[in-house]
Amino acid sequence: MTGKHNGVVKRLQQLASTAIGIHCCGHRLQLASSQAASAVPVVKKFYTVLRQLYDFFNNSAVRMAGLHAVQKTLGEKVLKPIEPSSTRWLSIDQSVARLKETFRSVLVSLEREGEERGDMKAIGLYHTLSSYSFIATMLLLCDVLPHLSKLSKAFQAREFEHSLLKPLVMSTLTTLKAMDRNGGENFGTLVGFIDELQKFDITVRKRATDESTVKQVVERYIGALVSNIERRFPCEDVGILSCFDVFDTISLQVNESPEYGNESVRSLSSHFLQKPGQLDITADAVNEWANFKNYARNSVLKQPDVDPQSMVELLCANKVVQQVFPTMAKLAQIYRVLPCHTADSERVFSQLKIIKTTPRNRLCQSSVDSLVRIAVDGPTVADFKYNCAVEMWAKKKHRRLYNWK
Questions:
Q1: Between the ranges 114-128, 178-192, 290-304, where is the mean pLDDT highest?
Q2: What is the pLDDT of residue 45?
Q3: In the beta sheet, which residues pair with residue 205?
Q4: How many CB atoms lie within 10 A of CB 149?
Q5: pLDDT at position 66, please?
Q6: Is residue 304 pLDDT above 80, yes or no?
Q7: What is the phi-psi region of residue 290: left when phi exceeds 0, alpha when psi lies from -120 to 50, beta otherwise?
Q8: Cβ atoms 269, 279 nearer than 8 A
Q9: Rounded to 5 degrees, what are φ and ψ at 205?
Q10: What pLDDT is recorded for position 87?
């Protein structure tokens, strides 16, 4: 899609020169996470075993019933394993958390399947799960993955804006780097976690080199994760996107140079607002920017609750300011609606798959369109006005079975 010569972005830019290509931030985070896991064999193997464990119980009602019976006997909650899907962004987080919560009952159930039924697969899974390195990797992922999962969910929010991207990514990177030095809370309970398992006669296999190997895994995995995120989310935007940094209120506050932002405004106005055959508007845009900087320093920057997006919010919400600074208002509105993810469109595809099933394959296009719009943008069941809908339905034509009073 992003090929230099015949990619989709390039072809669209041939039709609309102002179009810019932005890689979905959710996909970027997923790629960074998966590539970091693939770079560390121990973590990669953990994901493979996690999938095998899910399939082992999910594909057999007898094994699942046996797991639930063990959970009841041990006084635990009756919980099923969660599928570690690679297609859903960072869904492995919930799967790992569920494994940690049910780890003792899973081991007991696997041991029982191996002893009573002679299931070699159960014996192999028990042998893997009861190893020191597997338990340490599980606790490490219980520390790391929640931060990535929350970041991914923030990226997928409808109200997410491009201005929130850098602060959220930087805060996550700072947390991961601190975890590389000090370790996470779950990983710090490794010794106590193993001691609790041994109280139930569960022997944890530990080799002489396991501790040093686990330390290397922590350093390599978090290091690979940080480097991949930094590579896919550079500190400075490249191309025309970097010019929008002039609307950062904090940057304007610390930079009092009269030339601040002139080149960026010139580039933005030339790229987005300059029409073919029109006289050069960049000089007028720079002059308007100089006037707006003075206005912002005398109004926005003197407010006690200044945040990085104060100028953008002012230009997008205040009609008087828009009349005085029309060019800045247009650029701010463009910045406000920059797409950061494809989650909204993928939600539509998901709803379409739910609505148009095989038994309902005769739905016409207009009905499907209406049902999808209702599912995606319509009101909730609690807010829907059923009386109005029934009245409209009754007035469409005469209905003998309907008697409205």
A1: 114-128
A2: 94
A3: 131
A4: 19
A5: 94
A6: no
A7: alpha
A8: no
A9: -75, 125
A10: 64
What local confidence, expressed as pLDDT, does residue 145 receive? Answer: 93
Please tell me the predicted confidence (pLDDT) of residue 284.
Answer: 93
Task: Quote the CA–CA distance of 205 and 130 in Å, as a whole number.
Answer: 6
Shortest CA distance to 177 belongs to which of 139, 145, 222, 233?
Answer: 222
pLDDT band per the 50, 70, 90 thresholds, residue 400: low
Quick one: pLDDT at residue 107?
94
State the Cα–Cα distance between residues 65 and 241, nearest whole angstrom.
Answer: 55
What secondary structure, in 3-state letters, does the chain show? Answer: CCCCCCCHHHHHHHHCCCCCCCCCHHHHHHHHHHHHHHCCHHHHHHHHHHHHHHHHHHCCHHHHHHHHHHHHHCCCCCCCCCCCCCCCCCCHHHHHHHHHHCHHHHHHHHHHHHHHHCCHHHHHHHHHHCEHHHHHHHHHHHHHHHHHHHHHHHHHCCCCCHHHHHHHHHHHHHHHHHHHHHCCHHHHCHHHHHHHHHCCCCCCECCCCHHHHHHHHHHHHHHHHHHHHHHHCCCCCCHHHHHHHHHCHHHHHHCCCCCCCHHHHHHHHHHHHCCCCCCCCHHHHHHHHHHHHHHHHHCHHHCCCCCCCHHHHHHHHCHHHHHHCHHHHHHHHHHHCCCCCCHHHHHHHHHHHHHCCHHHCCCCHHHHHHHHHHHHHCCCCCCCCHHHHHHHHHHCCCCCCCCCC
> At what angle are helices 41-58 and 25-38 packed, to 10 degrees?
100
Determine how many CB atoms are found less than 10 A away from the CB of residue 103.
20
Instruction: Assign residue 118 a region (left: φ > 0; alpha: ψ between -120 and 50; beta: otherwise).
Output: left
Q: Is the pLDDT of residue 100 over 60?
A: yes
Mean pLDDT of 315-326: 92
